[in-house]
Request: fold
Amino acid sequence: MKETIYQTICPGCGIGCGLYIRKNADGKLSIDHMKSSPVNLGKLCRFGMKLPHYYAKENNAVNLVNGSSAVAETAIKAAVEILKEADSSSIALLSVGNTTNEEQMAFTKLAATLETIVQTGVSSECLNVPMASLVEIENAKRIVLFIDPYVQYPLIVRRLLAAKKNGASIVAVGTQPLNLADETLDLKPENHDELKLDSESLIIADIHPNSDIMLAKSLLALAQKTYAKIQFMRPFMNSFGTGLSGDQESKKVGLAELLEDIELGNIRTLVVLDSDPIELMPDNEAAVESLKKLNNLIVISSRSSPITEFANVVIASEPVYSKAGTFLNTEGKLLENSGAGKAGVDALSLLNAGIGGKAFTYDEMNYLVLKAIEAQKEKRSVVTECSVSVDGVSSPEIPEGMYELKYLYNPFMWFDQQDDNDFVLLNRNTVRKLGLKKGGCVNLKSNRGELKMRFRVEALPNGLVLTAKKLPVARGTSTIVSMEGC
Amino acid sequence: MIEVGDKVIGYSTDPGVRNKGASGGLVTAILAAALEKGLVEEVVVLKHINEYEAIPIITSDVEDVLASAGSMHTVPVNLAKYAVGKNVAMPGKPCDIRGVIEQAKRNEVNIDNTYLIGLNCGGTMYPVQTQEMLINMYDIDPEDVKGENIEKGNLIFRTKSGEEKGISIDELEEAGYGRRVSCRYCDVKIPVNADLACGNWGVIGELSGNATFCEVMNEKGVRLLENAIDAGYIEIEPASEKAIAIREKVNNVMLSMGEKWSEKIFTEIPDGERTQYYMEQFADCINCGACKEVCPVCTCGEDSKCTMYHNLEDNYRMSMFHMVRLMHLSDSCIGCGQCTDVCPVDIPLTTIFRRFADKSQKKYNYKAGMTLERPPFLEVMPR
Ligand SMILES: Cc1cc2nc3c(=O)[nH]c(=O)nc-3n(C[C@H](O)[C@H](O)[C@H](O)COP(=O)(O)OP(=O)(O)OC[C@H]3O[C@@H](n4cnc5c(N)ncnc54)[C@H](O)[C@@H]3O)c2cc1C
Ligand code: SF4
Ligand code: SF4
Ligand code: SF4
Ligand code: SF4
Reply:
């Protein structure tokens, strides 16, 4: 048998780097670079390079009913039964943007039949944030970064370096010094005026299920006040595609709020499309506890992940690289897969028909997607209620002798993927104070228990510990911990 | 009777292939014959996606071979790794062939059953940048292009309506377009390291544009050519003295142009500033590992000397990974440009690796990837 080559985009973040996935006769996957992709010119970050691991066969979802394997038809039937019996006022649908526009559109059809909307994990207060233009980064005069591009959105590093060559000054507002930044400022929101922004400045930030909506709002307000441009990066391959459904006016809640609603019993049936709250929430254990309160959990997914393990029904679709479909990247560029897999849309069509709605085809969904994109172009410039000035972005009080353990979100973290980042970042003062030895470890303690970790030294502010991996001692994106040598 | 050292001019006997081929479809016809007559099980060719993009495929389908005819100057891939562990025939630019030979030195490729049809190479360009160049320098819509060619130092584009426009490569490179940097100083233009060395230099008169100049470099080359003649796929005639002289002359001009570029790029770094130079160059590295993955002369696999030191926990400003690689590739880097092409933070890796390798390769009068006779010098250096 010949090898099969799929043209696709990387699912690691909203940049949507183009690449080829090669599948040989034995089913072994490898990547190949697609140098004609205008998004990334064939370049990929370490997540993209590790896609053969991410897409490994053992990570593909399989159809399950109550934990036992089933054929697709049985799984879909079981899901139909659940949805028919569920009280429609307590059903929620969630898709953060890890799949095609067409599946996303099909999911909104299902939501409409269920008289609800698709939640995206981000509050509608900040849903309609402006997209990024990667080329524009290169031409900006002054760039203020509220992200760490090296770790979080690696393919914008080259754009920033190009901007620098073109004479831009770059300021990083954050904690970790960035080689490409002229200065790094650990600024509180009330001091953002010190950034001296004007109409030739560009703010780059990001928005995701765990970001501080207040901070996002304050940045939008800052941009409006100073006439600076602002661009928001997004962590999922099709984050922007989730905005195509046309239900922007409806109230969408953040992921944490959605889980709270589950805790409170307001949501009893959850249907997720390629979105795993256990992976997405900063605290895996807490997310599991919340999900246990559900009566019914239906997972439609291409990947097996923690949530597929205790779902009532799992409906498996093919791996994203082999799906037919389109994606909207962080720039609003429409990117297309070469694959032909339509199992996701077909399953959603059967589900929809099963509960009394209309059946539909992939082509119909694709038509609606293209129409929605046209419509969106016309009202692209509108920025929503986010543009209200807000005070009081939270920053925690750190008791004497304690440390703040903070998450450094990156593509590996969103999918709980292995990377060689089994360490925390500390500064030299902390290493000295705790008497840590080169090659040794540090013991982190919180009220969730303790954990020994290796460490790396970085020029961070005193009192801060960073992790690019989820740690069981963490309770959220920021946790107060104590530390000692080990 | 074909003999090693023969220089011939030939073309495909199939008018369709001849027409579609870059210069007479000789290479396509030889590949198709090798496959159909069982000389090899598979061939490596490019599958065209569009005018600017193609992807290497390993195929046993002769239709794929026929579809691949034509030179793609905007496909700066390296084909060497696709030959690993296979019995294939493949076309290749000098850097593709050099990669295969380095792989063969390390027993990753069995050279006895790998057939290498070399293509002369003036250089490759980046697809996205080329499209930008078409708009800015040629005033041609990239979608309108139906073919390109390099002739007499000019890069010529043909549109669907049959118009042609050429601009000198020098002018394009002045404006920041044109060939990849590594191609500008590349020092092998005729692939004398292949079994057959094919190109359009030296094809003159009526045959110009629709025949290929082909030099038979070794016994495998003889086999390839005889196989295609016996199958009736190609016709050849001996190259004239004039043709041979022209080919030689153009090659020399190209090589001396390359030397000039080399002098321009590899300016000496003063003593005491080298560590700083290397540290600064690598400071933005995001440890993706792509530079190793694509390197056509790297044969170590996932667990290798450099990856043993490839850990994000490392506190060194310049990863040990790069230090090991600089050393380890100093006897095998062929300057193919692949590492620079894939670096997500645009580190000019090829220039850095060549800077390091050039000195030692020159010292031992060693050119990587040219012949199996010379083993990697780091392995055989007297202690
Ligand atoms: C990038 C490039 C630059 C060249 N520059 C010169 C030059 O300066 N002077 C000169 O005399 N000849 C040059 N050639 C060779 C020339 O263009 C013809 O390939 C050669 O004369 C053989 O012609 P043909 O009709 O027999 O080949 P064809 O029958 O057209 O077969 C061409 C084969 O080359 C393969 N191929 C096409 N593009 C590439 C690529 N980018 N990398 C690897 N394989 C590829 C195809 O898969 C196909 O198998 C160049 C070729 C390439 C690919
Ligand atoms: S994770 Fe993002 S930056 Fe990295 S390769 Fe994937 S899409 Fe590109
Ligand atoms: S490195 Fe040399 S052989 Fe390779 S594409 Fe460039 S000019 Fe051709
Ligand atoms: S180090 Fe770079 S230039 Fe040298 S052979 Fe490897 S990929 Fe090519
Ligand atoms: S390709 Fe570039 S960023 Fe990636 S490891 Fe190599 S030097 Fe570093």
About this structure: The CA atoms of residues 270 and 277 of chain B lie 10 Å apart. Chain B touches chain A through 40 residues (CB under 8 Å). Residues A 10, 12-13, 15-17, 40, 44-45, 47-48, 153-155, 411 surround iron/sulfur cluster (ligand 2) (CB under 6 Å).
